């Protein structure tokens, strides 16, 4: 809590805004009235200087100039105050009333005026530089006999000042510098400030699978690339982990900011070399603007965070800008995210099953378990509406475990009713694939092996790198020993290479629905699908077509020589009871 006295022209809202600033600032905030008497200090001042604000409230700034009136710096400062001019980084000393010790202060201030243009006082930022001054004094005393080394001493002083604001790994400015500079930028009247919040995609994957040296190499390279793109368009800060902030130059247009952001994304898409191996990450960016006097630093950061969240929710590797629609959607998303743990506990997260059919005979050869949320008020929710939130909460492995158990229990119930499902496919996330308990869970749940079990891996899991991860490699080997088949889902939509496929050695590729649907009318896509099928045949890998929605899709699949497909042309995803009825109908049709 800060200290304050009544000040003409200052509203309670002003005070609350100032206290909002003081709650997030690294330094302290102060305020004087129209007579230059101190009337406010934020709580950080007493914490830092050990001076009770009550000892300073009511004193004028020129009180501290006594004995220094001939000092040109003080004369210039007092002239600034007299003429109501803003000032930056003015330094002076005061004595602590408690013990008489000296403390050095660096302050910056901004004059304020009421609606009539009448000067009402100053507000500003203070910073304790006693330790810095003492270090500089000792440094100068030690080297007093070596006057010719003044240039070296100056460089040492600059390095000392920078050290508190520099990220040791990347050499960029740190979070403390960011908070300082953002507060300063938003203290300049009528200035519009822009903020880019950059988050590296897949950085946790790199750290977890390749080790911290690889992660450090990625961060250093990312900082270099961001700085190269920004050039003189703003200032780059590493604010923690794999997050970077950029305070854009004042008065930069939105279009220019978007162009810079897009260039950063393009630069970060390039592979990063580390110990003879290429690492591919990426960047998602949130963009927000705010005008001095209309937004606090904390709110501008929050807006950029929300925009970044939207970029991640829309597939990553893109830039999003904050707007009212985005804010409303994110708030709804966050409300839903709070319900996910309870939904898991209540078994509201359930599998629906899409049949897989042989193109020649029409026989059901299996089904894929697809996650759904049976929401008590919103109905059945598609995975795109909640899986991103579940991933951010670290719940994907738990949902995968739940889907696996329920799907295998379902096949047992079908068999007990005399219905046979030849195979069941269950999706596995990257987090679950890293889980050392995965093989044990499967061995525990998969008691009736007359129904084959396949796990489906998204093609976008980066197969070129995942096989090099010991835990993943061990899990895949153990799953094969158990008889589990490995499938690559959505092939043709992501990043898998032939080399990556050879490392994984999948049993089946599922060709992405976009390729299947496009192949009907586009000869080029048709040739691509034919080439994929040729590749699977030569590798001894089965192929399945996804997304067959029309009779034309099925005929195209048949003509290309793909034997198995799934899609709305034969069935939507079905609840367990609906699947049982569907299998009964198919059996009767086959019997007739």
From TrEMBL:
Residues 129-166 form a coiled coil. Gene3D superfamilies: 3.30.70.270, EAL domain, PAS domain. Residues 191-324 form the GGDEF domain. Keywords: Coiled coil. The keyword Coiled coil applies. It holds the Pfam family EAL. It comes from the Bacteria. Residues 88-141 form the PAC domain. The keyword Coiled coil applies. Residues 333-587 form the EAL domain. This is EAL domain-containing protein.
């Amino acid at each position: 809590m800060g200290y304050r006295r009544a000040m003409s022209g200052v509203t309670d809202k002003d005070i609350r805004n100032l206290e909002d600033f003081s709650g997030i600032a690294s330094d302290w905030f102060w305020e004087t009235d129209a007579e230059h008497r101190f009337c406010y200090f934020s709580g950080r001042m007493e914490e830092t200087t050990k001076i009770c604000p009550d000892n300073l409230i009511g004193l004028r700034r020129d009180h501290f100039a006594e004995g220094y009136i001939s000092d040109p710096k003080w004369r210039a400062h007092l002239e600034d105050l007299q003429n109501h001019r803003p000032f930056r980084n003015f330094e002076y000393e005061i004595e602590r009333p408690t013990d008489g010790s000296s403390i050095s202060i660096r302050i910056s201030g901004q004059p304020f005026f009421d609606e009539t243009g009448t000067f009402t006082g100053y507000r500003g930022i203070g910073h304790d530089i006693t330790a810095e001054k003492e270090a500089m004094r000792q440094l100068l005393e030690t080297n007093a006999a070596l006057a010719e080394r003044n240039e070296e001493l100056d460089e040492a002083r600059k390095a000392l000042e920078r050290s508190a604001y520099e990220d040791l790994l990347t050499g960029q400015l740190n979070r403390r510098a960011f908070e300082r500079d953002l507060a300063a930028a938003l203290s300049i009247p009528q200035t519009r400030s822009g903020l880019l919040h950059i988050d590296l995609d897949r950085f946790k994957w790199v750290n977890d699978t390749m080790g911290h040296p690889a992660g450090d190499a990625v961060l250093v390279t990312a900082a270099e690339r961001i700085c190269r793109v920004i050039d003189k368009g703003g200032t780059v800060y590493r604010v923690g982990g794999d997050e970077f902030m950029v305070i854009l130059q004042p008065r930069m247009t939105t279009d220019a900011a978007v162009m810079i952001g897009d260039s950063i994304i393009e630069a970060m898409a390039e592979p990063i070399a580390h110990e003879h191996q290429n690492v591919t990450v990426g960047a998602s960016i949130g963009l927000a603007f705010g005008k001095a006097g209309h937004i606090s630093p904390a709110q501008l950061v929050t807006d950029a965070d929300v925009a970044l969240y939207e970029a991640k929710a829309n597939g990553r590797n893109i830039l999003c800008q904050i707007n009212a629609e985005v804010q409303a959607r994110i708030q709804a998303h966050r409300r839903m995210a709070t319900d996910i743990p309870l939904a898991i506990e209540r078994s509201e997260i359930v599998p629906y099953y899409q049949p897989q059919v042989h193109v020649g005979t029409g026989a059901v050869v299996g089904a894929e378990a697809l996650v759904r949320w049976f929401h008590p008020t919103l109905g059945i929710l598609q995975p795109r509406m909640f899986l991103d939130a579940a991933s951010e909460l670290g719940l994907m492995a738990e949902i995968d475990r739940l889907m696996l158990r329920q799907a295998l229990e379902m096949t047992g119930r079908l068999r007990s009713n005399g219905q046979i499902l030849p195979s069941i496919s269950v999706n596995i996330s990257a987090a679950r694939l890293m889980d050392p308990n995965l093989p044990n869970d499967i061995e525990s749940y998969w008691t009736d092996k007359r129904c084959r079990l396949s796990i489906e891996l998204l093609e976008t899991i980066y197969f070129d790198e995942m096989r090099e991860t010991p835990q993943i490699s061990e899990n895949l080997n153990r799953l094969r020993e158990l008889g589990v088949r490995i499938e690559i889902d959505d092939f043709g939509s992501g990043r898998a290479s032939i080399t990556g496929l050879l490392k994984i050695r999948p049993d089946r590729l599922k060709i992405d629905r976009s390729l299947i649907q496009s192949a009907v009318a586009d000869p080029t896509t048709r040739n691509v699908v034919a080439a994929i099928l040729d590749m699977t045949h030569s590798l001894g890998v089965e192929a399945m077509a996804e997304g067959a929605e029309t009779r034309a899709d099925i005929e195209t699949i048949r003509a290309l020589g793909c034997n198995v497909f799934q899609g709305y042309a034969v069935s939507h995803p079905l609840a367990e009871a609906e699947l049982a009825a569907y299998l009964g109908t198919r059996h009767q049709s086959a019997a007739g």
